[in-house]
Design brief:
three-stranded antiparallel β-sheet, about 45% helix, mainly alpha, Arc Repressor Mutant, subunit A, globular
Length: about 180
């Protein structure tokens, strides 16, 4: 199974998100973070990501006669390269978007189900803006978003930090008038 197939499933994407930032987690710890997924399903998807090289075993230790493994994300393999993206079919794009949308819905529901949740305090936002852009302006927007996002991707967990899910989504909703 290639990276596109591996990363194109909502549960596997949630596992990848949980391990970002250099986290080392056991399947039990992953299960706490993705509590709406059954243990058997979680183990199956961790195994698929491990077999596909997206996860690796960072540590092993004996706990009550069993081997406990802590997994690490292989960040270099946990994304789709521009070359791979160029080979993706329209149906693959559709399935990838559905998986990403399913992750957003599942993670937002998990957030709302937590005790003491306060969307106003947590600055929750889910706005959409329709904007008119030339191809050059699209490139400028992407560059500006990358400049804003890339520096914070290396942030590590700290007592004053909460983990947020940031999902920029950009696609044209109409064709330019000259393309008809």
């Amino acid at each position: 199974m290639g990276p596109l197939e591996l990363l194109g499933h909502p549960v596997r994407l949630r596992i990848v998100h949980a391990l970002r930032g250099g986290r080392l987690l056991t399947t039990a710890e992953l299960g706490e973070r993705i509590a709406d997924v059954s243990k058997a399903t979680l183990y199956r998807h961790v195994d698929l990501l491990l077999d596909g090289g997206i996860l690796e075993v960072a540590e092993e230790r004996r706990v009550r006669g069993a081997t406990e493994r802590r997994y690490r994300l292989r960040a270099d393999r946990a994304s789709i390269t521009p070359e791979q993206a160029a080979q993706v079919s329209l149906e693959d794009h559709r399935q990838g978007f559905v998986a990403a949308a399913a992750v957003l819905i599942a993670e937002f529901n998990a957030y709302l189900d937590r005790q003491g949740v306060d969307p106003v305090r947590d600055l929750v936002g889910y706005r959409q803006h329709a904007v008119w852009l030339s191809p050059d302006e699209v490139l400028q927007l992407i560059a500006g978003m990358r400049a804003a996002i890339l520096p914070i991707l290396v942030n590590e967990a700290a007592p004053d930090r909460a983990r947020y899910l940031l999902s920029p989504i950009l696609f044209p909703v109409e064709e330019p008038p000259g393309d008809e």
